[in-house]
Amino acid sequence: MAFGNHCANCGGDGKLQEQRVLQTVPDVTIRFCQDCRNRLREQHVSLVKAGIEAARARGVVFGNPNGSFGVSTEAARKGGKIGVVTRRRNSLARAKGALEVIGELQASGVTSLSAIARALTERGVPTSEGGAAWHATTVKRLLHLNARQ
Questions:
Q1: Distances (CA, A) of 112 to 52, 116, 148
Q2: What is the predicted pLDDT for the residue at 120?
Q3: Number of structural domains in the chain
Q4: Domain residues for 104?
Q5: Which of 60, 111, 118, 130 is deepest in the core (most CB within 10 A)?
């Protein structure tokens, strides 16, 4: 459903372009002439830029927080490399703990990958990425990685 055959902003009937009002209501559109649409887009961009500048002035840090998992806010500002190093270090520490448990399981006669995965999940041993559920493929990759080192 579109509202009228005139620009919703200036009332002109020049080259009209439709604009959706809400993404949740895709069939409701309003029409703007090309000049008004460009002017409204520029206003929107300038408002967004002003909002970002104001947020930065308040100390808001933009970006993916997962890049700085387990790292202090100061370190997070220095970039994602520190986050990657920290995640890798934490991952290796968890993997080392899991390998010890796998060694115990193999010594006790549990040798199939799926049985090892089931036992690790039941014992609550976290995966190298911190997950709770182990799978045969996860065990296989960890053993393969350990064999290469």
A1: 54, 6, 20
A2: 92
A3: 2
A4: 79-148
A5: 118
Per DSSP, the residues of 2-32 read EE-SS-TTT---SSEEEEEEETTEEEEEEEE
In tens, the pLDDT along 88-125 reads 777 888 888 889 999 999 999 998 999 999 999 999 98
pTM of full prediction above 0.90: no
**Mode of pairing for the β-strands spanning 25-33 and 16-22:** antiparallel
Q: Residue 71 domain-assigned? A: no
pLDDT value at residue 1: 43
Residue 73 lies in a domain: no
Beta strand 16-22 pairing with 2-3: unpaired
Are 104 and 45 members of one domain? no
In this structure, are 83 and 134 located in the same domain? yes
The answer to whether residues 93 and 34 belong to one domain is no
Residues 6+ apart with CB under 8 A from 26: 20
pLDDT single digits (tens) 60-82: 888 765 554 555 555 555 556 66
β 2-3/25-33 pair status: parallel
